[in-house]
Amino acid sequence: MAKLNSKPKGKVAGASAIRKKDLVPFTRQIAGMLRAGMSVLASLSTLEEQCESPNFKAVLKQLRERLESGEPFSVALADFPVVFDDMYINMVAAGERSGQFADVLARLAEILQSSARLARKVKSALTYPTVVLCMALIIAGALITFVLPTFVDMFGDFGAELPGLTQALMDMSDFIRAYWYYLIIGAVVGFFLFKKWKTTPAGHFAFDRFRLKMPVFGVLNLKVGIGRFCRLFAQMLNSGVPIVEAMEIVSRSLGNVVLETSIMKAKGEVEQGNTLAASMEGKPFMPILMLRMIAAGEKSGRIDEMLSNIADSYDEEVETLLATLTSLLEPFLMVFLGAVIGTIVIGMFMPIFKLGTVVGG
Fold first, then answer.
1. Are 173 and 145 within 8 A, CB to CB?
2. Is 82 within 8 Å of 15 (Cβ atoms)?
3. How many angstroms separate the CA atoms of 234 and 107, rounded?
4. pTM of the prediction?
């Protein structure tokens, strides 16, 4: 495992943007330069000159200066943990030790690109229903708050009793108009209390467990997490990282504390001499199929290849599930939107339909 140096960690402006936009091409380009026979220092200098992002350019400059002072590349990367995570740093360190630096960086680029591609697909699949639900709430709120009272006032001049649905909607409208500021304050306070609760160990664990158990999307989150674990674990083993260190590093890269806890418990059993499959068996949210395939890989001595196959299988399942969710959510959301807006419109026009009876009476 790479040793972190004692220097203060570098603070990087726009670190999130760097990880999303610049890290994959940087890793792929430096791997290509190393394969072409260039040194790490020369490769960094070239990429620094060509870099268009001022924030990442500053990072490359400091990396180059650390290499010029004699630091290993992996140790220099450890000064910027907000850009280069543990998995990245330790795979680079393994590549330095094994002499397969360029190949390890090329595999890193593939991992990062695959993860980014999958994240984009998940985000794209969830964007549409989120937008539709927000639009439904905005339209429904506007109709109830501003439009409905106008129709009710027209009917109220005749002194007639409102229909039941219209009265219920009008009560909701009166409540929103009377206490809208309390609702906004309550929503803001509730949001910050939720975020604070989620940062506590118990809250973080409970929320991540809910993410894995929620209907439909829980299966999606689990498949994404397991697929990521298998792919990262395979690449770290293939790069020469010891299995115990690889388990610890990968567990922190999954973004789910429940899965991390299961893997860390299995790591403890591996340290005691158990096989990987036996150590992971019985742990929460560890799929049986994955465990059986890992056991087969251990028997054949090709566990890294088996893990890569598992990751490919889960990635395909995630893409299929996303396509299915998208096709099913569209009609469901249209029905939901029509039901919400239609109920409000019916409530608005029911007094008008009843107006002829009132006038005639």
1. yes
2. yes
3. 11
4. 0.77
Helix axes 217-238 and 243-251, enclosed angle (nearest 10):
140
Handedness of CA 219, 283, 110, 25 (dihedral sign): positive
- Backbone dihedral angles phi then psi of residue 92, each to the nearest 5 degrees: -65, -45
Cα-only R_g, the chain? 28
User: How would you label 18-40 residue by residue, b for 16+ Cβ within 10 Å and e otherwise?
Assistant: bbeebbbebbbbbbebbeeebeb
Convert the pLDDT of each residue in 231-290 to its tens digit: 889 988 887 888 998 898 888 888 899 999 999 999 999 999 999 999 999 999 999 989
pLDDT in tens, 21-41: 889 999 999 999 999 999 999
Burial of 63 (0-12, 13-18, 19+ CB in 10 A): buried
Cβ neighbours of 93 (radius 10 Å):
24
Distance, in Å, from the CA atom of 309 to the CA atom of 193, rounded to the nearest integer, reads 42
Token pair of 31 as six digits: 């791997």
Q: Under a CB-based contact definition with an 8 Å cutoff, are residues 321 and 120 in contact? A: no
Determine the 3-state secondary structure of 275 from DSSP: coil
